[in-house]
DNA sequence: TCATTATGTAAAATAAACTTGACACAATGT
DNA sequence: ACATTGTGTCAAGTTTATTTTACATAATGA
């Protein structure tokens, strides 16, 4: 699942660890999502969208 | 995760099995999501939103 | 040069999503 | 009375998401 996490992070100058902290997940989870190793769960996708004040569809796109 | 699947199904007069077929998942998966036994994966949430031509946030809401 | 930070990745474990197969029950139609 | 349909649920198994711990490497700063 393609996503704009890296860009959204860069805009805020956040490291993967920073983002992980704000999402209460591990740094490896953030890394795995960014590098498309796996997709976030729906609850996590909601958390991410919430954090960036965007809609899920504005951050993630299938395949 | 609260969701409007049952309503959206009812509007179309689809059974859980009908919806499952359209989503290429099992009937039990649809039932489990409707009865909030678990949340769909993000890819499945996208499929559902796509099928109903709605946004994920218009179908699902955290907790 | 040394310590720190950011990122990528791996392995092993647990949790969550999803499958198939099955059974029960209520409602509907023949 | 019988068969069918829709829904809820359970058990056992597979796949996917997430965790912790750990290691490698590149870049930065003292």
UniProtKB/TrEMBL annotation, chains A, B:
<keyword id="KW-0238">DNA-binding</keyword>
<dbReference type="GO" id="GO:0003677">
    <property type="term" value="F:DNA binding"/>
</dbReference>
<dbReference type="InterPro" id="IPR010982">
    <property type="entry name" value="Lambda_DNA-bd_dom_sf"/>
</dbReference>
<dbReference type="Pfam" id="PF01381">
    <property type="entry name" value="HTH_3"/>
</dbReference>
<dbReference type="InterPro" id="IPR001387">
    <property type="entry name" value="Cro/C1-type_HTH"/>
</dbReference>
<protein>
    <submittedName>
        <fullName>Cro/Cl family transcriptional regulator</fullName>
    </submittedName>
</protein>
<feature type="domain" description="HTH cro/C1-type">
    <location>
        <begin position="5"/>
        <end position="59"/>
    </location>
</feature>
